[in-house]
Specification:
With 648 residues, this protein is an alpha/beta fold. Helix content is 49%, strand content 20%. The chain is built from 23 helices and 20 strands. The protein has a six-stranded mixed β-sheet, with helices on both faces. Strands 12-13-18-15-17-16 form a six-stranded mixed barrel. Helix 6 links the parallel strand 7 and strand 8. Helix 19 runs parallel beside helix 22. It binds adenosine-5'-diphosphate.
Length: 648
């Protein structure tokens, strides 16, 4: 039994108040068939919405079986509504995308998370549409659509069916049919309340309530009420399975998206491009970084390189000339006097023309001592490194880099061959290990010969360009660095004002760290740019979801009327945006992977896709779906059922 006590509903429109219900007291007994009639604007629909728990009265009490429920929350109202009340609207309010039987079963999505199409089919059979289960609303006549809506109102076995002008849009034949069905339902014990302005409909009811100006004008019993169904609400408590619930939302979201393929594809595009960019950028950045790291690790780490800094810095060199040039003696003194030195190799560099047979090639010549092999990790892959004896005797022996082997020896093993360096004959004694290029100059385009040979026979230098010094431990490097500078400045009598510039000791570990840092920064920068495009993609999704919410306002109203809680609507829209972004994300990963492969094939850049970046991109896109989906989804969930239903 439903009892309304002095219900008032006041709409405020600016300064004026509209008293849609001005104190209605009404009792509706179980099993009754009540028609509510009255002129337009008399408050019939408002009363219906209050009765149907779609709207809350401004003041007054609403009691179900003596229990006061007018102050319970929106979501609790939704649950109560779907368990007890079925709705039939003048506009039918069927979802166009769904078939008849799916429309009928839709309320079950909210009451038991699973649409039982068999039960839906039985109900359609009962309203005479057993042969139309798979028709869509636009393939049905108005009367048939209203019968589908009646079947839908019955799907949760309601105690009461509320019909708002159910025959208002129908021809007279359909009207008779609909009324017959309603009467039948009432005979089964279901309470029926019909709002109508048609006298014929009112005359069919067992009780006729007339309204005027928001008040009950008359209340007339015309026939005894039916025996009510004996059903208590407790029977209907359904066990919830949260996983199935979420799965169902995703399934529904997926279907909605499939129904709007072009729009879905367009909203996916942003995420797709963003994710592809992130994956590709990270792969290219990581590839470059690995390359640099590889070529750096080939240098040896506890390495100091001493050079005269003056030459490159101008000033000092021009004034003091040869005083800042390093000599072989400097190297000897450093080795003698500085602590913790593991190895030391003076070196000269220059360019020279090399030749073998009829092949010519311009390359870098390095002249150094035997210690260079260990310090620079230059153990030959074929043959041997030269000895100190080779150096002392100024022997004409040479080690060649991989590029030289390729360019002038045609890839053949050159060991033992005689080649020319600046027209002087040298015997090849070994092949240097490959060091790669890594964005720098080609480190394999080089030949290495004994230091004295280089100085006096090839390059004509009486000084050395640099001294490589390997220190015992990383900890000792700083100290050694200072001692070396002090010693060398003293030896060359560099005035204190110029000591900063005359010589420099470069620490390979520092350079390594700096370069690695740079390449990391670069990779991050690339990824950040790509991430921005992801965010833009997210905004695209949000846009389209917002449009979709507006467009589906009526649908949201209907879903709420048939029992969807706020969170059901929220999750439904969220699931849609997550599905869009996750599918876009997966497609983006594939595209990014393709781009990466193409780039390394076409441009020849090193690339490296990491599982981490793929995971990151996926995670990112899913997060974007949630983040940018929340606002539209929240907006949808907060729509008022009545206003949403009335939205045009
Ligand atoms: P009926 O269904 O009998 O035609 P309604 O219940 O729809 O009447 O409306 C009763 C009164 O309340 C009318 O004067 C109508 O203009 C007003 N009304 C209904 N809904 C709103 C609303 N959302 N905002 C302001 N006024 C409203």
């Amino acid at each position: 039994m439903i009892e309304l006590r002095d219900i008032k509903k006041i709409y405020r429109m600016g300064d004026t108040e509209v008293h849609a219900l001005a104190g209605v007291s009404l009792t509706i007994e179980d099993g009754d068939f009540v028609a509510i009639m009255g002129p337009s604007g008399s408050g019939k629909s408002t009363l219906m919405h209050v009765l149907g728990l779609l709207d809350v009265p401004t003041t007054g009490q609403y009691l179900i079986d003596g229990k006061e429920i007018s102050q319970i929350g929106e979501d609790d109202l939704a649950v109560l509504r779907r368990n007890t009340i079925g709705f039939i609207f003048q506009q039918f309010n069927l979802l166009a995308r769904m078939t008849a039987v799916e429309n009928v079963s839709l309320p079950q999505l909210y009451s038991r998370q699973k649409m039982d199409l068999k039960w839906g089919g039985e109900l359609l059979e009962r309203v005479g549409l057993g042969t139309r289960l798979d028709h869509r609303p636009n393939q049905l006549s108005g009367g048939q659509q209203q019968r589908v809506a009646i079947a839908r109102s019955l799907v949760n076995k309601p105690l009461m069916v509320l019909a708002d002008e159910p025959t208002g849009n129908l021809d007279s034949v359909s009207e008779v049919e609909i009324l017959r069905i309603l009467k039948e339902l009432n005979d089964d014990g279901i309470t029926i309340v019909v709002v109508t302005h048609e006298e014929e409909v009112g005359q069919q009811a067992k009780r006729l309530v007339r309204m005027r100006d928001g008040k009950v004008q008359s209340d007339e019993r015309r026939a005894p009420k039916s025996v009510p169904t004996s059903r208590s609400l407790a029977d209907e408590a359904v066990r919830k399975n949260p996983y199935r619930e979420v799965l169902e939302y995703f399934y529904q979201g997926f279907r909605t998206l499939l129904a709007n393929k072009v729009r879905t594809a367009l909203s996916m595009l942003g995420i797709l491009i963003g994710v592809a960019a992130v994956v590709a950028m990270l792969a290219i950045g990581r590839g470059a970084q690995k390359d640099i790291e590889a070529s750096l690790s080939s240098l040896g780490s506890n390495l100091l390189v001493l050079r005269s800094g003056a030459i490159r810095r101008g000033g000092v060199a021009q004034e003091s000339g040869s005083t800042t040039r390093l000599t072989l003696e400097d190297a000897e003194k450093i080795e003698e006097q500085v602590a913790n030195i593991k190895g030391l190799a003076p070196a000269v560099q220059g360019r020279a023309q090399v030749a073998f047979g009829n092949k010519n090639w311009s390359t870098q010549v390095i002249g150094t001592t035997g210690a260079y092999e260990k310090i620079r990790a230059y153990t030959p892959v074929v043959g041997r490194f030269f000895s100190d004896e080779d150096n002392q005797r100024r022997n004409r022996v040479v080690l060649v880099g991989a590029t030289i082997v390729r360019e002038i020896f045609g890839g053949q093993d050159p060991v033992g061959e005689m080649m020319k360096i600046n027209k002087v004959s040298f015997q090849v004694v070994g092949v240097l290990p490959e060091k790669g290029s890594g964005g720098f100059r080609d480190q394999d385009d080089t030949v290495v010969i004994p230091l004295l040979t280089a100085m006096y026979r090839v390059l004509g230098k009486t000084y050395v360009d640099s001294i490589d010094i390997e220190i015992e431990t990383p900890e000792a490097m700083e100290q050694a660095q200072e001692e070396i500078l002090e010693l060398i400045n003293a030896r060359h009598r560099v005035p204190p004002s110029q000591q900063q510039q005359a010589f420099e000791v470069r620490n390979m570990a520092d350079i390594q760290a700096a370069l690695t840092d740079t390449s990391k920064t670069l990779a991050l920068l690339l990824a950040a740019i790509a991430a921005i495009s992801l965010v833009v993609g997210g905004i695209g999704i949000m846009n389209i979801m917002l449009v979709s919410v507006t467009e589906r306002t009526k649908e949201i109203g209907l879903r709420k009327a048939i029992g969807a809680r706020k969170r059901d609507i929220l999750l439904q829209f969220l699931a849609e945006s997550v599905v869009v972004s996750v599918i876009g994300g997966i497609a983006g990963i594939l595209l990014g992977w393709g781009v990466t492969v193409a780039v390394s094939l076409i441009a020849g850049w090193a690339t490296s896709i990491s599982a981490g970046s793929v995971f990151l991109a996926f995670f990112f896109s899913a997060t974007i779906g949630v983040v940018f989906g929340i606002y539209p989804a929240k907006k949808a969930s907060e729509l008022h059922p009545i206003q949403a239903l009335r939205y045009e």
